[in-house]
Amino acid sequence: xxxxxxxxxxxxxxxxxxxxxxxxxxxxxxxxxxxxxxxxxxxxxxxxxxxxxxxxxxxxxxxxxxxxxxxxxxxxxxxxxxxxxxxxxxxxxxxxxxxxxxxxxxxxxxxxxxxxxxxxxxxxxxxxxxxxxxxxxxxxxxxxxxxxxxxxxxxxxxxxxxxxxxxxxxxxxxxxxxxxxxxxxxxxxxxxxxxxxxxxxxxxxxxxxxxxxxxxxxxxxxxxxxxxxxxxxxxxx
Length: 237
Fold this sequence. Notes:
The protein is mainly α. About 65% of the residues lie in helices and about 5% in strands. It is globular, with a radius of gyration of 19 Å.
């Protein structure tokens, strides 16, 4: 029995090393092909560990990996996808006892990939960036973590704009109170995906600043002024 235990642990450790190597060295979609060659439930555990890696490339490739892996699991059994999302929601609760780094991004990527989960959990995802002033809501109060929430809604709004449009007023109200440049940029992404204008963008067209964003499965530079100009132009059409 002890021999089997050590074999199991060594096997899991070996899988984790190989997955980290894939995430570090390969680009999309090559690392995805590698991930799905391993037992998927073991991959999920390894990807959660990768979210805490000091290498940004590994962390973001893990986010993308979750989307593909959970999509495959959900095709076989939709309840597996629901269980996974409920796990993410628990990690985001205060009762979990930790800061859920990367979890909002994972939820946004997974819902963008799995239609049945998008239909069932989109409201919870979107309310992570909407402060209703109610302790029972899903708003992420911790600003560094809320950056991930805005990225998640931006990612989701690209795949499912119709499911986000009903929250236009609340999103605009929330953006009016945000100051963080990355959050503002992601808010602009959301509005751009929805073809919605925002008067607050008028003050942003003077900010000629680039920010790096993991978007379309690669790191890219986006200019706040340029995106703000696009959003402002929607009111002129």
